[in-house]
Amino acid sequence: MSAGPAGHVTRSFDIPNSETADRTPPRPSRTPLRRFLRTDDGVNIDAVYDPKAVVYNGSGGTGTPSSGHLAVVVAHGFTGDADRPHVRRVAEVLARYGSVVTFSFRGHGRSGGHSTVGDREVLDLAAAVRWARELGHEHVATVGFSMGGSVVLRHAALPDGPDAVVSVSAPARWYYRGTAPMRRVHWLITRPEGRMVGRYGFRTRIHHRDWNPVPLSP
């Protein structure tokens, strides 16, 4: 984690090309930056910035894709967080093409607040996108999975939305209970004992109040 001011990425430990010509190319050498972001409604959101990967290609240059100043902001699913292994794997792959911002939605991981399961989370994503732009990225794309997929779609309608959006396996409508997994999700959200399982079993603190008003479906 960088000890410098916000937006400053500390030095890299890349090995010169001449020392790696006869070896297996090293893993991307990047120094991540971690900080808490403040949302418009006052919630602290844990976020991680991974600079774009640089891998030496053995031909006198670097094998950096021509992605310009792209940053990708990843929105995880319900009960996920920025430190989950599957989220880190997604970030590692996307870092081949641009810098990556991952974060934990409210009520998840190290972030403050309580999960509203896709409603106020739009403000969390907005804070992460704003941070990416503050770090100097001209183009910002959002990628969301499941609950995060619904959040990126709703966030895209805002005036300061991203330049591109990818939504993976997002719900098309709220309160769907047509499958056993979705019925378990609703039990987790709506029942006191379910919210206790969410807190201690999934590190997810879920708000006890229902939506009022109900947001538009994705």
UniProtKB/TrEMBL annotation:
One example GO MF annotation: hydrolase activity
Reading the lineage from the top rank, the first entry is Bacteria
A Pfam family the protein falls into:
Abhydrolase_1
Query: Which keywords, in A-to-Z order, does the entry hold?
Result: Hydrolase
Q: Where is this region: Disordered?
A: 1-37
Coiled-coil region:
none
Does this entry carry the keyword Hydrolase? yes
Query: What sequence ranges are listed for the domain AB hydrolase-1?
Result: 71-170
Give the stretches traversing the membrane.
none
Spell out the protein name for this chain: Alpha/beta fold hydrolase
Species of the source: Streptomyces europaeiscabiei
